[in-house]
Amino acid sequence: MTATLRPAEASDIDAICTLLHTHMNPEYPVERWKRLFAAPWCAESPDMGIVAEDAGRIVGFHGHVCSHRPIGSRRERFLNFTSWYLLKEYRGQGLGRAMIEMATADPDVTYTVISLSPKRLDFFKKMGLDVLDTERLLWRKDGHEFENLELIHDPEVMMTRANPDEVKVLKDHLGLAVTPVLVSTRCTQCLLLLSIAAKGNNVTYYDVLYRSNPGLFTDRAPDIAQALLPEGDCVLAADRRFVEKVGDGAEVEAIPSPRFYKSSRIKPRNVDLAYSEIVLLGQKLD
């Protein structure tokens, strides 16, 4: 059996989603898979991914979630990889490697892999992707007192108080599987996008996908946890690169599946987890 690779097109979406539902994860209905192709920020220069096709039949897919992000004074293009699957009878022919080579061909794009099977770690390293993070930091509610910190949860209020970059991020993610919180002090503020989910150890994680102000988040993470978290077994969690230094009170935990990235333009501290498959598919963050 021989398959060829080509960019995915809008007319492929139904076949791709059927493939992913039938063979990759039947727990996700077709309609949920279709969310990958409905990102509200992807209308400009969309890149849906790569399909493997044999005699008109789609037998594999390597998905891309594209976005353009302001990094300093530059506008940078990101591709988050998602939903990489090949039918078993097409494996072992080099198609998977060819998909990654095709996907990472543009040196001006920053590529990210957020959810990854541990079986593929060595493969991605060999393909030239670097480890983005292997650890995250945890903060718990410990009862300490704090001042000069307000958490705003109402999106309408956030829209009036956020800066223009924060407003765009907030609008892009409204209605998706994230919880926005605007952290405000007398001098500055920080927009957080959170993914909230109970994980295998029955601890509820408030995972930080995005923070607009790394300095404020670094300085006030323990206070944010104290103000944000409910009583019970809960943690505020953030990949290590999300802070500028590890302060007192932070626990360190290994990430089960390390994050990967490839970029000649962006430093790891500027690579977050927003604009990704996590928010489109409503996935738990490993």
Automatic annotation (TrEMBL):
Alphabetical list of Pfam families matching this protein: Acetyltransf_7
UniProt key word Iron: no
Alphabetically ordered keywords of this record: Transferase
Protein name: GNAT family N-acetyltransferase
Annotated Gene3D superfamilies: 3.40.630.30
SUPFAM superfamilies the UniProt entry points to: Acyl-CoA N-acyltransferases (Nat)
GO molecular function: acyltransferase activity, transferring groups other than amino-acyl groups
Domain N-acetyltransferase: start-end pairs: 3-156
